[in-house]
């Protein structure tokens, strides 16, 4: 049985009520990541920090020592048993415990725009509170189609080619479950967002990983070519890319597109960071010649409008692919929050100035973090998009990414995310950690100051 850490599907599953068993799993599972063998030995450096974190049994029973009940072993279906405790939650809990500044989780520490929040309040007051139409409130489907036309030039039918989902996370799940058969091969580029592997596992797919390597995380085209087989059903793309900030170049996308057409392979394209494309223009794979008919484009409101808790997402695909996505969506959630959909339609029709300002703000934040990290002594890899930046931590002499993040939280008071869990082979990520700059400038500066003061080579 494979045993590894994974990220939560949503990087924002936070809060004191979501404590899980980090103390038991973190060190044991990390040992497995590194050695291929699980270990029951406690991790000395973390055991002290963990003493106040509830154990797995506390979670199961929901009890503390004062109200004991029979404790049952944890149960999970085989298709999900390798996906362990959510490390973002654990990191955030550690951040709270150590008073660390959280540059780990990818959600803003500032609020979304007033005009969108007001639209949601108005929708609630106006009584838009019952089940929405399954594939989306008509006005939102229209707004998504308008935005897609503006972004790609493609005219899509809002009634037949757009499905509104509960965040991009549900778009991903509905796409995998609706279009993948057990045994189908799906190619992922590692490092990758955690929900891809988990939902592919639920769909019974065989995951084929191709590792993107620093400094530019370029696509190894020959490896891709030789990985595609007659069983390959789809390639999953994510550009701008979490965690590296890489944006797939036009040349890379052209080659991928021609391989897909040649081999009759679908593309599932996760574009949640499309409006955070800083160094080059975002290209939707669906807009490349011959690709629309074989692409599902997935996106959401959360990153662009700093409203990650709203969970409004969508999938755009030609009718023959939308059919499968909708079949899965119908039985996953059926419909998503009605008033938020009405407000999302208003959001998507924001003037161009909104997007310009968003990028400008993020570029200022990025400059603070990137310059700060360089001055601390990290090797910072170029990030073209998203609100993440990946660095090489090895100048500081820690054994690997998890050991470095442990040190950073406890001794420096800053949270970063170890990247090894984003890989099929965790060794590939052991030198890299990810920081986010979706925080206010004061927070970013304070984190840099702490690192300057306390991190020693
Ligand atoms: C690459 C990527 N895809 C999808 C999501 C999830 O999006 P949503 O919050 O809309 O479900 C995230 C969130 O962090 C992400 O980083």
From TrEMBL:
Domain Aminotransferase class I/classII large, residue spans: 101-450
Organism's domain of life? Answer: Eukaryota
Q: SUPFAM superfamilies annotated for this entry?
A: PLP-dependent transferases (SSF53383)
Name what cofactor the protein needs. pyridoxal 5'-phosphate
Q: Keywords, A to Z?
A: Aminotransferase, Pyridoxal phosphate, Transferase
Q: Name one GO molecular function term.
A: pyridoxal phosphate binding
What protein am I looking at? Aminotransferase class I/classII large domain-containing protein
Keyword Transferase found: yes
Which Pfam families does the UniProt record give? Aminotran_1_2
Xref: Gene3D superfamilies = Aspartate Aminotransferase, domain 1, Type I PLP-dependent aspartate aminotransferase-like (Major domain)
Q: Would you tell me the Gene Ontology cellular component terms?
A: cytoplasm
The record, for NCBIfam families, names:
PRK09082.1
Q: Which organism is it from?
A: Malus domestica
